[in-house]
Specification:
Layout (H helix, E strand, L loop, with lengths): L1 E7 L5 H14 L6 E7 L5 E4 L42 E4 L10 E4 L10 H8 L9 H7 L2 H12 L5 E5 H4 L4 H12 L3 E4 L9 E4 L4 H12 L1 E5 H6 L2 H12 L9 E3 L2 E3 L2 H12 L5 E6 L5 E6 L3 E10 L5 E3 L3 E5 L6 H5 L4 E4 L6 H17 L5 E9 L4 E7 L9 H7 L5 H17 L5 H20 L4 E7 L2 H17 L3 E7 L5 E3 L10 H8 L5 H9 L1 H8 L7 E3 L2 H7 L1
Parallel strand pairs: 1-2, 1-5, 20-21
Antiparallel strand pairs: 2-3, 3-4, 6-13, 7-8, 7-13, 9-12, 10-11, 10-12, 14-15, 14-16, 14-18, 16-17, 18-19, 21-22, 22-23
Helix pairs in contact: 9-10, 14-15
Length: about 575
């Protein structure tokens, strides 16, 4: 089956999308699927990408080509004149939606944010009868709107979480002190400010102190606008202005281009710098710069003290839900923002949550209930808090979870016995099953599903040789072993057997879940410990699903005195 891997898009999360696209491209089961990379640019054009470009560091490394000449690293929306130009042949070939079916049979969506995760691309693909991964139109529409999510989750489980929706027309009178006093009275401090249509913790800020300045900066951040003081701008030298302009263009720390300034749309950092120089030469005090794709309202919530967790939920073939083991987010920083989520060392993940078995089971129960009642299918990741008094508060259903090989969803699916390759196969196969339920193109999709099932079953029946991956007890060797493990699984020619040469001198044949930890010290601890009962229980519930995708799975760590003894057994 030809799998079109869609990544990029116009949203602020496009680089996270690129990372997910790389995962699908590299880890899809090559015995079942042919990956076809489809890059979606900021103008909404679909480009059949040259495959070698999938190994670029970031999108701006290969698109647009003019990045090498303008002094700034920008995305193509900073060059509006290129919208009508042909795509360079070294980049790929422009595709139109009616031609999709000539290049791929299924669209794997690794895109995030508005236009990508809100039902827009899903609706386009349904119109052209292309089955796609993840939830359908309704679940996607709910999953993109944090304000609507809060209301709907409250209807499902009666959770009580204080919040306030602040509209832009309430903000622009600049009556900041009054608003701050009202919000402190109703919600208290700290305040959590969120852009309602963003993911990857973009547009999230926490106001911890009783500081009006901090409050104004946080709300502006989530509206994706900047209030720049004239005195600040005038203090910048040339290099500082260039660095400031570049920061605005960086989507992980700036508001991105195009921007609106003085009722004018500006596409490029150099033009913005020039206009600011002219503006402040007239002794103006404050410049308000807003993203062209600014939010019209922001969500302000009370700060929740408690253990933060993230829990995936998937489906059985009959549509019933299975909540995966929840992961606790152990933060090493105050705010779990974009950098905390994606930069090494800012947080750690622990499976399951450090609480009682019964409370972990309760988390799974409420996650599964919300998954079903919100009209989401195939897969979701829902975040939440477990407070000190045992209350579970949920927020932010994520219908296209981040998909790096060590993302929450893959770590949790590993605990039921599925490696990344098998998890991707599940996402594709279950998505086809859910598209059949829409009553569109039914018999063709049934045929596609039957053909895929036949190939999966045939794959399971093939006897494959074992391939040892022996590594020493260092983080560097563990990371290299994980990469080998993933590559061998995707190739499908052998069964990789990871073996840790432990600090105690023994050799431990590791189970699949132990290849998804963050540090080798975590593995060292777990090979000597009893498996958590929640993990055992969830694995048992998932046994039939796991057997279909992975065959017989063992969760027992075997110990050997030397490699020869292990090879003799294999």
């Amino acid at each position: 089956m030809r799998i079109g891997i869609f990544f990029g898009g116009p949203s602020r999360e496009r680089e996270i999308s690129f990372a997910g696209g790389k995962t699908a491209f590299e880890y899809l089961d090559k015995t079942l699927f042919e990956p076809v990379p489809v890059f979606v640019d900021s103008f909404g054009r679909f480009i059949l990408l040259e495959k070698e470009l999938m190994y670029s560091g970031e999108i701006r490394d290969f698109y647009p080509a003019s990045n090498a000449h303008d002094g700034f690293k920008t995305y193509i929306e900073s060059h509006p004149g290129l919208a009508g130009e042909p795509v360079p042949s070294e980049t790929g070939t422009l595709l139109s939606p009616p031609d999709f079916k000539n290049h791929f049979d299924f669209a794997f969506l690794a895109m995030h944010g508005p236009d990508c995760e809100d039902g827009a691309i899903q609706g386009l693909l349904e119109w052209y009868r292309i089955p796609y991964s993840g939830p359908g139109i309704m679940g996607s529409a709910v999953g993109i709107d944090k304000i609507l999510q809060n209301d709907m989750i409250e209807l499902v489980n009666n959770q009580q979480k204080k919040s306030w929706t602040l509209r832009y027309d309430q903000w622009i009178p600049r009556e900041y002190p009054i608003l701050f006093q009202v919000l402190k009275k109703h919600l208290g401090l700290p305040l959590v400010i969120k852009a309602p249509h963003q993911g990857s913790s973009i547009g999230v800020a926490i106001v911890k102190d009783d500081s009006l300045e901090e409050f104004v900066a946080a709300v502006n951040q989530c509206f994706f606008q900047i209030e720049l003081e004239g005195s600040t701008w005038k203090s910048f030298d040339y290099a500082q202005k260039q660095a400031w302009g570049q920061k605005i263009a960086n989507l992980d720390e700036g508001i991105g281009f195009p921007v609106v300034f003085s009722s004018k749309t500006i596409y490029h950092p150099a033009d913005l710098i020039k206009d600011l120089d002219a503006y402040f030469s007239k002794e103006s005090e404050v410049a308000v710069i807003s993203s062209l794709n600014a939010e019209d309202q922001v969500l302000i919530e009370e700060f929740i003290n408690g253990q933060e967790f993230s829990c995936g939920c998937i489906q059985f073939d009959d549509g019933k839900s299975l909540a995966l083991p929840p992961s606790e987010v152990v933060k090493m920083v105050q705010v779990f923002d974009f950098n905390a989520k994606y930069k090494p060392g800012a947080s750690r993940k622990r499976i399951p949550v450090d609480t009682s078995l019964e409370k972990n089971q309760e988390i799974q129960q409420v996650i599964a209930e919300v998954f079903q009642q919100l009209g989401i299918n195939v897969c979701v990741r829902i975040d939440g808090f477990l407070t000190e008094d045992g209350t579970i508060l949920l927020h932010d259903p994520n219908t296209i979870p981040g998909m790096s090989p060590t993302s929450f969803i893959f770590k949790q699916m590993a605990e039921i016995g599925l490696n990344v390759t098998q998890a991707l196969t599940y996402l594709i196969r279950q998505s086809v099953r859910e598209r059949i339920r829409t009553g569109k193109n039914t018999w063709q999709l049934r045929g596609l599903l039957a053909d895929l099932d036949k190939k999966i079953n045939a794959n399971q029946s093939i006897e494959k040789p074992s391939k040892l991956i022996v590594f020493e007890s260092t983080d560097e060797q563990y990371a290299a072993a994980r990469m080998q493990y993933g590559r061998f699984n995707a190739e499908g020619k052998s069964v990789p057997v990871p073996v840790l040469h432990s600090e105690d001198g023994k050799y431990y044949k590791l189970t699949n879940p132990l290849m998804f930890k963050e540090y080798v010290a975590d593995v060292e601890n777990l090979v000597r410990a009893e498996r958590h009962p929640l993990l055992t229980e969830t694995s048992q519930k998932a046994a039939a699903l796991t057997a279909f995708y992975a065959g017989n799975v063992s969760y027992k760590v075997d110990i050997y005195s030397d490699v020869n003894a292990l090879e003799a057994v294999l």
